[in-house]
Amino acid sequence: MSRPPRRPDARRDARPGRRLRDALARAAVPALPFAWLLAFFGLPFLIVLKISLSDPATALPPYTPVLDWDAGVAGWSDFLAALDFENYRTLAADPLYLDAALTSLWIALAATLLLALVGYPIAYGMARAPRRLQPLLVALMVIPFWTSFLIRVYAWIAILKADGFLNQALLALGLVAQPLTILNTPAAILIGIVYAYLPFMVLPLYAVLERLDRGLIEAARDLGASREAAFLTVTLPLSAPGLAAGALLCFIPIIGEFIVPDLLGGADTLMLGRVLWSEFFSNRDWPLAAAVAVVMLLIVAGPLVLFREAEARQMERP
């Protein structure tokens, strides 16, 4: 019985096409994140940056200068020459914006520190709990997300106001002689922010602490370290990546937080999120609002750069 004839030519013809498809597939994998960033961060940021460099105007887009595509290189030259930093000079000259930036910065730093102090014991307790209970504890931490963020913040008004639940409890316990003024103060903002962002601090910490090798702690105890010394020299340094990730997840959105300061902070506590909203929707000064947004982005970019450098140094360690 004779064998069927082989077709080497057809097989060779198929290989270049397959290699091309494989090369395109390999190139598409790293290209997708960059395409995503370009489409949903790079291009919107360039639009906001262009508006921030445009002439001040009240809700009359498109904001001048406008690029004349038909003019070619001369059009680009005229367009770039007409951009200016007038809106940024306005931000620098008016102390209101500087105060808002400083207030946002200190509230974000204080809230992140409080979140770390409150969230670390919770995450540590969840990680040391019996494994059969850990899914339930994680679910209890996530369940508040099932309720509207706005409703949860509104609930704090009923708790913190002069005749609210907190003051009634303090009066009933005899801890205060008269109701405390908590609502419409920076303290109310910190309470609301710590409550709202606690899962963002706890869950990254829990993920790191749950994977921590307990044999290292037992080895430290066997070598004579006390429970506190073992925690400070083993557990705390090894959980630093989770702590840093949680701090970033909290600090960055708190800088631009709008709902909590608006509902709990009153009119005297001005943060960048409220300034941004006022410039966009009340004053309708889009170029100035865009400049505020760019400044806010620069503020949150600093911690991101520091975090990336710390990660790179840690990976370079032997």
Inertia-based shape? flat
Largest sheet: none
Helix content: over 70%
| Cα distance spanning the termini | 65 Å
Radius of gyration: 28 Å
Could you characterize the architecture of this molecule?
The protein has 318 residues and is mainly α. The protein is 75% helix and 0% strand. It contains 14 helices and no strands. It has helices at residues 8-52, 73-82, 86-93, 95-128, 134-142, 149-160, 165-173, 186-210, 214-222, 227-238, 240-255, 259-264, 272-282, 286-316. Helix 9 (214-222) packs antiparallel against helix 10 (227-238) and helix 11 runs antiparallel to helix 14. The mean pLDDT is 85.
Summarize this structure as a short list of keywords or feature phrases:
318 residues; mainly alpha; 75% helix
Write a compact overview of the structure shown:
This protein is mostly helical and 318 residues long. The protein is 75% helix and 0% strand. Helix 1 crosses helix 14, helix 11 runs antiparallel to helix 14 and helix 13 runs antiparallel to helix 14.
What are the SSEs and their pairings?
Layout: H1 8-52, H2 73-82, H3 86-93, H4 95-128, H5 134-142, H6 149-160, H7 165-173, H8 186-210, H9 214-222, H10 227-238, H11 240-255, H12 259-264, H13 272-282, H14 286-316
Helix pairs in contact: 1-14, 3-14, 4-8, 4-11, 8-11, 9-10, 11-14, 13-14
